[in-house]
Design goal:
Elements: H1 16-38, H2 45-52, H3 56-62, H4 66-91, H5 96-113, H6 115-122, H7 129-157, H8 168-186, H9 196-205
Helix pairs in contact: 1-2, 1-4, 1-6, 2-3, 4-5, 4-6, 4-7, 5-9, 6-8, 7-8
């Protein structure tokens, strides 16, 4: 997930594009912290800039308003989570259960190690209204598409049954996202990684023959 970065100043300063990338990552880290602490409704561009150690003018060089900042942070966090899951599954080899466990573990590890960004990804994005809901729907569709593709590949190899319907992957993703969101909001269970066996049962359960 987006991490805080700093760059040298003065004659050793990097090119503008490098500086802007570092600034953006600092703003993302600050925004995640502010959204997690205050909630999207109470957050402000000034508060994000102050947390990042930057001026409000610098914030507006990157984002038109706090909604644009939230959506950009959401996009970056979602991309990193999905990439981490895909990489973990590929590293696990061809066994479908090993790939499944690796993907689940990568997802939960990302949430556990980046709690502020996780709250933006799972909870605060809803505050961005229709645009936030649209972003969330697209990410869930991508997540469901990855789950369905994994199941289809396992079915072709004869190692797992095919899902009974195209909606099965969406049902799994919806349940997983709600379980993770509940954990972020209520801390139940105490550690999000404790959800791993439940998510595995959920995914494998829908892959069993009816």
């Amino acid at each position: 997930m987006p991490a805080r970065a700093t760059v040298p100043r003065g004659r050793h300063a990097p090119p503008p594009e490098v500086r802007q990338t570092a600034q953006r990552r600092r703003l993302f880290a600050a925004a995640a912290s502010v959204f997690a602490r205050s909630g999207y409704a109470e957050a402000s561009a000034e508060g994000i800039a102050r947390t990042a150690g930057m001026s409000k003018a610098t914030f507006y060089e990157h984002f038109a308003n706090k909604e644009e900042c939230l959506l950009a942070l959401f996009d970056a966090a979602a991309t990193e989570v999905l990439s981490a899951m895909a990489e973990a599954a590929d590293t696990a080899g061809t066994d479908p259960r090993a790939r499944l466990r690796a993907g689940i573990r990568a997802f939960l590890d990302m949430l556990a190690t980046h709690p502020d960004e996780s709250q933006t990804l799972l909870v605060e994005v809803i505050g961005a209204g229709e645009r936030g809901a649209d972003r969330r729907d697209k990410v869930m569709s991508a997540f469901a598409g990855a789950v369905d593709a994994e199941n289809a590949a396992a079915a072709r190899r004869g190692t797992l049954p095919r899902f009974a319907s195209p909606d099965d992957a969406f049902a799994i993703v919806g349940a997983v996202v709600e379980l993770a969101s509940r954990q972020v909001r209520l801390k139940r269970p105490a550690d999000v990684r404790e959800l791993e066996p439940l998510i595995e049962r959920l995914m494998l359960g829908l892959a069993r023959p009816a």
